[in-house]
Design goal:
3 strands, binds zinc ion
């Protein structure tokens, strides 16, 4: 599966909107998501 970072912008944003409590941020793209498998450089968010 492609990472979220490689998806078309619209599709990626739709997916991100469904995530209300992101746990990971992409260290390269800055995207937020709750599953690190969607990111190319996932980093855990410490709250
Ligand atoms: Zn990325």
């Amino acid at each position: 599966m492609k990472s979220l970072c490689d998806m078309k912008k619209k599709k990626a944003e739709a997916l991100i909107k469904s995530v209300s409590h992101p746990k990971f941020i992409c260290g390269k793209c800055g995207r937020l998501i709750d599953k690190k498998k969607y990111l190319c450089k996932p980093k855990k968010i410490d709250e």
